[in-house]
Amino acid sequence: MNYPIICAILFNTLYRNQPIQGNTLYIILLKIIYIQGYDLYIIYETYWAGYIIAEKDLGYRRVQSTGRGSYIISLPKEWIKNLNLEKGSEIAFNLHSDSTITLIPRKIKEKTGDITEAKLKEYFINIDATKEDLYAILRMIRALYVISADIIRIHFKSAEDATKTKNKIKQFARNTLLGAEIIDETQDEIVLQTLIKHSEFPIEKAVRRMAIIALSANRDTILALKDQKKELFESVINARNDANRLGLYIVRQLKFGISRNMFRELGFKTPKEFLLYRIIVNDIKNITENALNIINNLANLKKQVDNEEIFIKEPLDEEVYLQILNFNSEAHKLFEETMKAMFKRSYTDSEKIIAKRGSFIQNENDLLRLLSIKKLDPNNAAIYRLVMDSSRRILDYSQDIAELTLNRTVEEICTSFEIK
Fold it and tell me: For residues 71 and 65, what is the distance between their CA atoms, to the nearest angstrom?
């Protein structure tokens, strides 16, 4: 008597040649066979099919520049057609430790389950508006923003006492936190979310913009010496606030990169460059703080004169003003050269900048001598010295950043005995 035999065959494979698309691989996941006597019956069979494209050398392709600091390279047409990609298709770029890059179309990553949506970092703050210090609350919100919080939920224990505090928080978010928006609000809660992504506004671009704003604020303080218009005063205050927002955003980016060891993704060659940019941001911020200090002193002096609390015989000495304007202009040029050398990673240019800094000492001494021999009103003389000191500090910041650039690039030029 013949007894039936049931066999389960797992992971059986076979290949079938297909034109154009290379080889098609069929993997039989499960085959159930019923055998009785000499008869064989296939009861159930399931398989998975996919394409294997043989490795192919596609040659070299030239890297091209768009003229805006970005680089582009064309993708192989055959590869695009085989994968049915088109304009707007998304491709993931994975950078490996050996500096090679793997390109994976999004639809392939989705099929293989490799795409993992990053979970938003969410934090909660409970506030008793009647007891807690408003500035302590704002500092906590700023600290959460800096450590790359995506969502901040601010809950108020008493909705009745929350209105004033909520308005202050919303104003603070608008003026201080770049990219942060109120996405939800109820009587007892505000939800802040940072919508700007790190890839949308790179660190280098933010630092460039911050430097431009800082020098503009400093320049307006010089103009305000001669023309004390309200618009100039407001321009300096707004520039200082804008620079602070950018500075806080850059620090947020740096902390984000450090926590994930993403120095290459952020355009750095080594993790040490995180510290370099942190110091540069601090120097640029100081330029705007010095400008604000001058404007505050000028505004206070103007108020006293307008109220006839003090009397100034000669509001402005033209010779002193022109000398200060010239000294400030030279300081700006040196700072701009310094930033260019830093972004270019130029060791040679940075050395020249450091050497050039010493040539301004005579200019400073001449300006100090002019201030001492002029019979200036003490109030004006104090303002002139503040302005001159701010220009001198810009020269010092230029030297500091140039020295940072030396530290950043010295290993690149001292790897051999070749003359460079």
Answer: 4
pLDDT digits (tens, 9 = 90+) for 351-402: 999 999 989 999 999 998 998 888 888 888 889 999 999 999 999 999 999 9
Contact 35, 7 (CB under 8 A): yes
Confidence class of residue 204 from pLDDT cuts 50, 70 and 90?
A: very high
pLDDT in tens, 147-190: 989 999 999 887 777 888 889 999 999 999 999 999 999 888 99
pTM of the model: 0.70
Tokens 């909705």 sit on residue: 159
H or E element that contains 302: helix 273-306
What's the pLDDT at 232?
Answer: 92
CA quadruple 161, 164, 167, 172: dihedral, nearest 10: -110
